[in-house]
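Suppose a classmate hands you a notebook page containing two proteins, each written out with its sequence and a corresponding row of structure tokens. How would you begin to make sense of it? This section walks through that situation. The first entry is reproduced here exactly as it would appear on such a page.
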Amino acid sequence: MLFNAFKQAGDYVVVSVNGEEVARYPLDKDFETDIITQDGVNTLTVKEGKAYVSYASCPDLICVGHRAVSNVGETIVCLPNKVVISIEKQENNDLDLAV
């Protein structure tokens, strides 16, 4: 599929709550952590370079049913708990720009 040719593997999973970044984790280390908000709890699991929500206290559980994400720009959203999980690439701030 041509669309797959443009996908870029991410380096980090970024957790935002209510629009504010609260955590950033590398995708190359397996782990599990709870994201606790005023609205509920989501469990973020990273395994084999992919991130997914393995538990949520929200009523609809759409975030739990979402497939694992690993490519830049992919997201998992839990609207009831106001949690957004997104994949980003490491920024390279060591660029040498010539003018």
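The notebook's second entry, a different protein, reads as follows.
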Amino acid sequence: MTNPMKILFAFALIFSLNSLAAPNSIVAIVNDELITFDAISAKIRPTSTKAEKIKLIDNQINLVLQLEKIQKFGIKPKLSSVNAMLSNIASQNSLTLAQLQANAQYDEILENINQQLSLRGLKQLVLQEADIKLSQAEIDTALAKNPSNSDNFNKQIKIAQIVISSVDQTDSLLQSKDSLIQQFLIELSDKINAGTSFSSLAKLHSQDPSYKSGGESEWLDENRLPAVFKQQISQLKTDELSPPFQAGQAWRIIKIIDKRSVDNHLIALKSQLVQSKKNTFFNDWVKALRKNAYIEIFDHKL
């Protein structure tokens, strides 16, 4: 069986199982909670300085304060999330879920999973109050340090389509299904060119789920479109109808609604800036908890 210590460390489980740890002396008090040396001993190296040890205690203080808020707010992880993490741990350690549950340290693993998910839930709750906005100056400064290049741009397109895969052949037994569908789509095209709304006809006739939005798609990456779509799109101008064409088992007519070029690098950069601001907001929230808490550190024990 896989060493249970591997399971703990693989998922950053924080409690110490080190039998060589220092005596379980109290190194800090946070409100009504005690922090013992064992809570940080696993992360202390022989070369750790006193300042580094105090930093570990500070982190533990922050954890205690967050756990207090989790209890106050009644935050509990979803059972599905807990089970998903347990299954992931079992899989990554080549265990079945039953084998993991039979492990001597299962209760500790489960406790840590619940704690990590609860901490994540607390952060999400706190960040609901954050009004995160990016200024153009912030974006420009970040781009100046890490500029985009032509390889970062991605062409995207938004289309509308009417898709037909089946048709009533009762009155036209001499024509094939494909012929009838093409004829029907040509009739729809004539109506659209005469002024009838593409969207209204798509809602009435299209047999694709996109009919709900009038046949309109989300933004699509051009380089990921099937070859038959690329061929049709290359010959179309915006708002111009394609002739009926077959893709898979269905026939369709499409038109291009809009095109754009997306800077993937810029999107990623903005996401990083937003995440940085969220982290700052949350860290400031934790600092505020410390200001209103009773905290005493016994650094002479380090």
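A careful reader of the second entry would note: Residues 4-22 have pLDDT under 50 and may be disordered.
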